Task: inverse folding
């Protein structure tokens, strides 16, 4: 909706040609810098696909509005902790391969999707604006990108009124159908992992990693991720020493032997790389300084320019060594979003592509394809699916609520990728109950543990062993079952996954829990209230087993279920099994 009369849009630029298209009870305003042809199809009830094709390469925009009636939240891939309704006049946001994803959902009461939208373009930049139109009480949307005459701008709109999670899952499936096959995700990517970051920070060395490997495997982890610090003796938390990517001779004197030792414990090994950075204090600095996008003073490093093939060859070669020479099982690739600089310099004569995101895509395509690759929020574009096996929530140390929200957000649009939680850490004096609630906060993702496992109390170790076993045993339901988080406006106080006759619910607030008519219900109590209300619709009997946070059985008995509400006691961090 470009410069609509009476609507304040201070950041808009007018596009010369405009065409209106009516479909699904809405009026779409299609604008561009070229002659436009617009088509609309309805591939499923309540689902529209709008394609706007210019007669030459040009910017194209589609705008529309829906009545803002019963709206409770606006969900966006880069929404962070904010789930309120933004104003329409805010600055447009950009999604591209390096950062964000072109999708959003206006959620209404009852968790229904009032309007879910997604763009088919997932590599090049897509601008979106969404928000409340103050002048009318509508919720406005527009989406814009440079479109080619052979493809145009493709927009999917879901007005079916279904649960918002179902509409977002369909968006992920749609992206998958548009953009072809993705990398196979091995089962180890969906199993608990150990990470060195919060446990060791940059003070990481071979002996310390090996000391954690045995306990991690014994507790149920199947991978270990060695983070920053392996490549340098610097402990300054900056990035002035990244870019050479040689193991520190002090901390990792024989990295191949070390990797073999850790893998001998039954763990896959992943190694961290800050892909875009070259630090001032590296041997690579003078070599790469002419081929950089920007300098980050606070990081003491520059961002390299992937539009140059020799830069890509150099970076890909450095990362490939970990897998091909040192025996690593995978790569943890960090900071891809840093490639998304504003106003990058014009490419020089040695560049072979005009845009940075195309350079990033070519760089990632050169990395080994037969290994594990971890990415991280906020680079959530489905354009990255062919290059990764897992994606992790952005950093939120010791914040269970943020970890829950971020992992749930990822689950909604991650498609084939295994979703990992940010690393879990806790104070040495933390209670076993609170350790358990941290694990429950990321129940529907893959937990990464990042504490000194050799220093845990017996009770803390029992909690880890019990809950990691639950993650492993029920990974199929938790990670690949039908996924239904509730109330995004309240940071998902209850989340459900179901597959076949098994339903698993995590409760993070004192809300009633619906009991299925048949099968097995598992209820993880991530709240400190212990009086759990079960809402029963179908009468019958059930066998109820209650475990405490350490897995010890507190009670097991048959229970009569009459329609209405039944209260049971489940301790904080505990687990209820109800079998009908």
Result:
């Amino acid at each position: 909706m470009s410069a609509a009369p009476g609507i304040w849009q201070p950041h808009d630029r007018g596009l010369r040609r405009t065409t209106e298209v009516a479909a699904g009870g809405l009026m779409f305003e299609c604008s561009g810098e070229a002659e436009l042809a617009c088509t609309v199809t309805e591939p499923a009830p309540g689902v529209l696909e709008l394609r706007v094709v210019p007669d030459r390469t040009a910017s194209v925009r589609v705008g529309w509005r829906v009545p803002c009636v019963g709206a409770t939240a606006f969900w966006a891939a880069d929404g962070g902790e904010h789930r309120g309704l933004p104003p329409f006049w805010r600055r447009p946001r950009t999604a591209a391969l390096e950062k964000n994803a072109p999708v959003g959902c206006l959620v209404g009461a009852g968790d229904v999707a009032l309007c879910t939208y997604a763009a088919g373009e997932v590599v090049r930049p897509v601008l979106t604006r969404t928000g409340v139109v103050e002048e009318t009480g509508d919720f406005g949307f527009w989406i814009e990108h440079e479109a080619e005459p052979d493809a145009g701008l493709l927009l999917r709109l879901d007005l079916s009124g279904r649960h918002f999670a179902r509409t977002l899952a369909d968006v992920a499936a749609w992206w998958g159908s548009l953009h072809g096959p993705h990398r196979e995700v091995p089962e180890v990517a969906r199993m608990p992992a150990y990470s060195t970051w919060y446990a060791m920070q940059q003070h990481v060395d071979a002996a310390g990693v090996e000391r954690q490997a045995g306990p991690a495997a014994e507790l149920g982890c199947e991978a270990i991720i060695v983070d920053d610090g392996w490549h340098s003796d610097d402990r300054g938390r900056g990035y002035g020493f990244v870019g050479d990517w040689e193991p520190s001779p002090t901390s990792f004197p024989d990295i191949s032997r070390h990797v073999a030792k850790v893998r001998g414990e039954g763990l896959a090994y992943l190694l961290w790389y800050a892909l875009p950075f070259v630090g001032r204090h590296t041997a690579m600095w003078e070599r790469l300084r002419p081929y950089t996008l920007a300098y980050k003073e606070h990081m003491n490093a520059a961002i390299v320019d992937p539009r140059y093939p020799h830069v890509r060859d150099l970076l890909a070669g450095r990362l490939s060594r970990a897998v091909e020479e040192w025996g690593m099982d995978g790569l943890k690739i960090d900071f891809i979003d840093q490639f998304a600089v504003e106003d990058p310099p014009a490419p020089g004569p040695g560049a072979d592509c005009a845009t940075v995101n195309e350079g990033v895509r070519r760089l990632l395509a050169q990395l080994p394809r037969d290994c594990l690759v971890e990415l991280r929020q906020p680079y959530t574009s489905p354009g990255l699916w062919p290059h990764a096996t897992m994606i992790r929530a952005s950093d939120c140390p010791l914040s269970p609520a943020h970890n829950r929200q971020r992992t749930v957000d990822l689950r909604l649009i991650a498609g084939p990728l295994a979703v990992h939680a940010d690393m879990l850490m806790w104070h040495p004096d933390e209670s076993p109950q609170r350790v358990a609630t941290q694990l429950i906060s990321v129940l529907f993702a893959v937990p990464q543990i990042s504490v000194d496992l050799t220093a845990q109390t017996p009770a803390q170790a029992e909690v880890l062993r019990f809950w990691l076993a639950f993650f492993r045993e029920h990974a199929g339901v938790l990670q690949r079952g039908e996924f239904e988080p509730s109330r995004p406006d309240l940071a998902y106080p209850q989340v459900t996954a179901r597959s076949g006759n098994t339903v698993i619910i995590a409760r993070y607030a004192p809300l009633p829990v619906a009991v299925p008519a048949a099968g097995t219900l598992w209820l993880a109590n991530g709240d400190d209230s212990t009086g759990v209300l079960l809402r029963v619709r179908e009468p019958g009997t059930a066998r109820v087993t209650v475990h405490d946070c350490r897995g010890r059985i507190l009670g097991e008995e048959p229970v009569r279920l009459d329609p209405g509400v039944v209260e049971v006691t489940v301790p904080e961090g505990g687990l209820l099994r109800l079998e009908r």
